[in-house]
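INFO batch 0412 | record 1 of 1 | parsing
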Amino acid sequence: MIATIIIVAVAIAVAIAVAFWMTGIIGLFTGAVEKIEFVGLYAQPTDTGWTLTAILRNVGTTTTSFDVCFINGVPNTQWGNAATINPALPITINPGQNATVTITLTRGAREVSRSRCCAWAR
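INFO prediction complete | emitting tokens
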């Protein structure tokens, strides 16, 4: 009789422990996901260089932000006068929403690339 009570108590304790463990695992796999996709990306030549337009969509489950933009490995914080980005970063995007980012590259500018990216924009 006592053995039966002990076995039942252990089984209940193990079931509770497994339930808490599974809740933790499920929380890891179904928690907040940050994911931005490029919906569209195109370039247009202008009289002074190029205009790049990127359309971003937040397909994740939580609000996320677009903090930095790289062109050939050079972050926007090092572009100087060679390129501008509009709107200014960071951009906050809510789940399911789109954001449009426009980058203007100046013709002949070399600051963006350290002689790698914008030499072609002459």
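INFO post-check: The CA atoms of residues 68 and 77 lie 8 Å apart.
INFO record closed
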